[in-house]
Amino acid sequence: MGWLVTGGAGYIGAHVVRAFQAAGIEASVLDDLSTGFEAFVPDGVPLIKATLLDRDAVREAVQGVDGVVHVAGYKYAGVSVQRPLHTYEQNISAMVILLQEMRDAGADRMVFSSSAATYGTTDVDLVTEQTPNHPESPYGETKLIGEWLLKDAGVAHGLRHTSLRYFNVVGSGSPDLYDASPHNLFPLVFDALVEGRTPKIFGDDYNTPDGTCVRDYIHVADLAEAHVAAAQRLAAGEPIEPVYNLGSGAGSSVRQIMDTIREVTGIDFEPEMHPRRPGDPDRIVAAGELAARDLHWQMRHTLEQMVATAWEARQKAGDAYRG
């Protein structure tokens, strides 16, 4: 018995697997390695190399598990606008197969890695679970539809579930686990510095204290622990909310990120300023009170620690950073 982590060879999923191990809970992994790395999966953890669209592989993976932490999916919001059908196939068609096979196997618990992209652009200072959902990309739409699927599966065949919404995941819980995304801020800045280029800031005329966008950044190890806490709560049969925000409640500006990266890395640079990008709101920050109450959620890492652990992993990865 134990929990299956879909996408468990990826940056976030691999941290979830290790958090399960730290809690003394067995974990297995299903991952097609399209963005993940086999080396991220700890020795002794079963790995099925397959896509969630492969029904036979999914059927094999869910046999005998207590539940599933569903982290796999196509996560690039901007690119999803150009590839909507691919995004829906990867995030909705695949999830339907997973839920069907879980039902047939008697696996009746799921922790779903959702996204704060379900909210879209908001005009509130602090996003709560009651903030209306207005996703603005196929990616955000598919995450919201995924939550609907869980709700309907719960009504139809008793699936116990919760969905975790969060914004920007950074840092590293282990020097051998790094974020290789070509779209995330930390990897983009690190790559620029390593390659001798100057990092860029898009817009310094926002309605924020320093003029740059304010966003929510959370450490990946804190995020992973919240997934395990949610799985444990489901396993214990304790009351659980359908949705939790995993937010900092404060946020950091892009300028603060750049300043912290300069201090931590010791590389002196002044970011290039470029015009703001269309659609970027001034500030998006989420509250995390519900998750703190039920999932022991807290920000255990400072911004300096987020940058330092991410930079250490980037340096260790070297040329392997892009896989």
UniProtKB/TrEMBL annotation:
Pathway as given in its UniProt record: Carbohydrate metabolism; galactose metabolism
Pfam families to which the protein is assigned, alphabetical: Epimerase
Keyword Isomerase: yes
Domain NAD-dependent epimerase/dehydratase: 3-247
Keyword NAD: yes
Keyword set, alphabetical order: Carbohydrate metabolism, Isomerase, NAD
Gene3D superfamilies xrefs: NAD(P)-binding Rossmann-like Domain, UDP-galactose 4-epimerase, domain 1
EC number(s) per entry: 5.1.3.2
Cofactor: NAD(+)
Catalytic activity: UDP-alpha-D-glucose = UDP-alpha-D-galactose
Family under the similarity heading: Belongs to the NAD(P)-dependent epimerase/dehydratase family.
NCBIfam families for the chain: galE
Entry protein name: UDP-glucose 4-epimerase
UniProt lineage: Bacteria, Bacillati, Actinomycetota, Actinomycetes, Propionibacteriales
